[in-house]
Amino acid sequence: MKSLSRRLILGGGAALLTGSAAAPQAARSATAVPGLHSQAVAKGLFFGTAVDHTLLEEDTAYMAHVPRECGMVVGEASFKWEHLQPAPNKFVFDQAEGLMGFAARRHLRVRGHTLVWHEAMPDWLAPQLSRATAERILTTHVRTVTQHFHRRLAHWDVVNEVLKPEDNNPFGLRETPWLKAMGARYIDVAFETCAANDPTALRVLNEYGTDYAVPWEEKKRGALLNLLASLKARNVPIQAVGLQAHLDASQVALDQKVLNNFVNSIAAMGLSVVVTELDVRDNNLPADVPSRDVAIAAHAKAWLDAVLACPAVSGVMTWGLSDRRSWLNEKYKRADALPQRPLPLDADLRRKKMWDAIAASLASAPRRAA
Ligand code: XIL
């Protein structure tokens, strides 16, 4: 299976290389080739990206490309707990509302990310959580935030990254302040409170590390399917799974069959699937830019082809639109200190091979029922 995947990747890369060699990048960007969202809509899908508030406030050139390529946006940080409730019972929506305003003017839908996460917790929060207090603190936050955005969001990532099988908890749950204070029930409470207060936002469980045929990700896929089955059996109102898709261009264990089976197993439980944070890191690849771009594009295409083949997948979000800004440059620095090239547009906002790869995957995806 691994060698099959490798062949698929190389085949995809060669096709992408030939496809774009004829058209210089600048010329291609100036043409009226429809953006990725238009191409997605033709298949009943959507395309979108994460937007950091600094771009929204400071980079009009970047932001001009967002509505050209996207039908959906998500705040890279602005909807996280530390921003929305920086002090107990002090809710601050200014940054998030900045993105809401931009999206409303440009007729873009918005995903909320994220209600409950073990990161981006303000300093006051974890020390306050005990058996006696945690449920009230959780429901206050989720209720206040979901009521505030009532009917204005397309999706909520209700919980983020709740799994870590290495922690050896039941269901492979991550050891977090929430798990310690409430047990697995914190997930149920988060979904129920979201459903009760903003029933029109699609309720998503968002997770990473489910992409490759390597042992720790195999464990995580298994744990995720078990957790979903148990949430469904308890009638927890979950509706979808978010696959973050933070990919690594140097990873050879991309097995399209494993990936496709996994997504189909989620769909078989009556859940939809959203690709929520796609990017492809190149910190393990040599410096040469053209060959990095080919490898990144081929990798993204192999992953997307396998996932978009399943009709339960409703759309694709990248974690940023242009290489001008990516969290990967902090999280996974290259040894040569060069900036990474993980996103569809380059740092000069020109469409690159990663863009071609996404367009090609959307083009070959089966059309979704209206
Ligand atoms: C990241 C942001 O991109 C960074 O700017 C921030 O410092 C940390 O969080 N998975 C997620 C996202 O669900 O919220 C993370 O975003 C990236 C990994």
Structural class: alpha/beta
Main pleated sheet: 8 strands, parallel, barrel
Structural shape: globular
CATH architecture: Alpha-Beta Barrel
Strand order of the largest sheet: 1-2-3-4-5-6-8-9
Portion in beta strands: 5-15%
Please identify the top-level CATH class: Alpha Beta
Distance between the termini: 34 Å
Corresponding CATH superfamily: Glycosidases
Query: How much helix is in the residues?
Result: 40-55%
Number of domains: 1
Low-confidence stretches are 1-27
Ligand list: (3S,4R)-3-hydroxy-2-oxopiperidin-4-yl beta-D-xylopyranoside
Round the mean pLDDT to the nearest integer and report it: 93
Q: Please name the CATH topology.
A: TIM Barrel
**Topology as a string of helices (H) and strands (E):** HHHEHHEHHEHHEHHEHEEHEHEHH
Computed CA radius of gyration, to the nearest angstrom: 20 Å
Number of separate strands = 9
Number of helices: 16
Tell me what you see in this structure.
With 370 residues, this protein is α/β, with parallel strands linked by helices. It has one domain (6-364): Alpha-Beta Barrel (TIM Barrel), CATH 3.20.20.80. It is 46% helix and 14% strand. It has an eight-stranded parallel beta barrel with strand order 1-2-3-4-5-6-8-9, surrounded by five helices. Strand 5, helix 12 and strand 6 (240-243) form a beta-alpha-beta unit. The two termini are 34 Å apart. (3S,4R)-3-hydroxy-2-oxopiperidin-4-yl beta-D-xylopyranoside is lined by residues 76-77, 160, 208, 244, 277, 327.
